[in-house]
């Protein structure tokens, strides 16, 4: 038989347990990752004429200025381009190069520089090119005071769309492209309602805005850099894979 004091003590113990359980449950709730919280990324730095930029913390670094370990020719052979001053330089007839690894939709960053000494004109002046996912080409060209056809100037998606503006820096000055290769947009039935598309920033300036280029769901391919016979340089090349968008607030 319980005495009055025993009953009080029992009730107090049960009460304490209930409170502890409530705290424990709340702590477990707090430990669960909220899927709507975006992951933390430490941003990199922008390149300057004197120094390469640095990649963000979640980037896949494809070229850091010191080696060609992630690159090969389009025939799968060793790269014959030059390593020079923390950059790689196209060697005429060295051939177009590509990443060994296939990549997908996402953000591609490259810094590039056309030769300081101007030679040639139109398409023969500082010509190279960036091919995310194996193509189409985002044209690299010395388009600073250099007339050529709009669909072939710097920042054109070659033979498809001229850039919205000409944001080219002078010859010999480092520049950047950020190319966002968008995955196709698919409706609930799985039908593609917009094919894959490129958005391009040239030196931070929007020059291509969500322009449809084709390419299917889950497309992968190498990132290629073109040998067009001109000694164009590249540095600080990186890639960030596409992320599933966080749903809009209801
Ligand atoms: Mg080209």
Structural category is alpha+beta
Q: Report the CATH superfamily of the largest domain.
A: Exo-inulinase, domain 1
Return the CATH class of the largest domain.
Mainly Beta
* Integer tally of domains: 2
Radius of gyration over alpha carbons? 26 Å
What portion of the residues fall into strands of 2 or more residues? Answer: 25-35%
Overall morphology: elongated
The count of β-strands is 15
Helix-strand pattern, N to C? HEEEEEEEEEEEEEEE
Largest sheet, in brief, is:
8 strands, antiparallel
Tally of helical segments? 1
Helix content: 10-25%
Termini gap? 58 Å
Briefly say what this structure is:
The chain has 250 residues and is of the alpha+beta class.
Characterization of the model:
There is one protein chain. This protein folds into two domains: 40 residues, no CATH class; 182 residues, Sandwich (Jelly Rolls). The model has no long low-confidence stretch (mean pLDDT 91). The chain is elongated. 11% of the residues lie in helices and 28% in strands. The longest helix has 28 residues. β12 and β13 form a beta hairpin. Strands 1, 3, 4, 6, 9, 12, 13 and 15 form an eight-stranded antiparallel sheet that branches. Strands 2-5-14-7-8 form a five-stranded antiparallel sheet, with no helix packed on it. The protein contains one helix and 15 strands; from the N terminus they run αβββββββββββββββ. The protein is an alpha+beta fold. Bound molecules: magnesium ion. The site of magnesium ion has 8 residues, from β7 and β8.
Short descriptors:
binds magnesium ion, elongated, eight-stranded antiparallel β-sheet, Jelly Rolls, 1 helix
């Amino acid at each position: 038989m319980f005495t009055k004091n025993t009953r009080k003590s029992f009730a107090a113990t049960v009460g304490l347990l209930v409170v502890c359980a409530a705290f424990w449950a709340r702590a477990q709730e707090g430990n669960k990752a909220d899927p709507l919280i975006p992951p933390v990324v430490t941003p990199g730095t922008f390149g300057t004429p004197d120094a390469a930029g640095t990649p963000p913390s979640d980037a896949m670094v494809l070229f850091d200025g010191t080696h060609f370990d992630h690159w090969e020719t389009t025939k799968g052979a060793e790269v014959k381009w030059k390593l020079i001053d923390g950059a790689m330089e196209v060697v005429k007839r060295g051939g177009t190069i590509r990443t060994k690894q296939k990549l997908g939709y996402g953000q591609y960053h490259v810094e590039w520089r056309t030769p300081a000494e101007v030679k040639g004109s139109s398409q023969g002046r500082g010509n190279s090119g960036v091919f995310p996912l194996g193509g189409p080409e985002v044209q690299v060209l010395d388009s600073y005071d250099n007339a050529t056809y709009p669909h072939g100037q710097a920042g054109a998606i070659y033979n498809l769309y001229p850039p919205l503006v000409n944001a080219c820096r002078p010859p010999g000055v480092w520049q950047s492209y950020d190319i966002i290769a968008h995955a196709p947009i698919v409706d609930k039935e799985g039908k593609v309602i917009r094919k894959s598309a490129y958005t391009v920033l040239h030196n931070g300036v929007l020059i291509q805005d969500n322009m449809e280029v084709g390419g299917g769901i889950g497309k992968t391919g190498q990132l290629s850099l073109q040998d067009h016979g001109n000694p164009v340089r590249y540095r600080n090349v990186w890639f960030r894979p596409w992320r599933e968008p966080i749903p809009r607030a209801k």
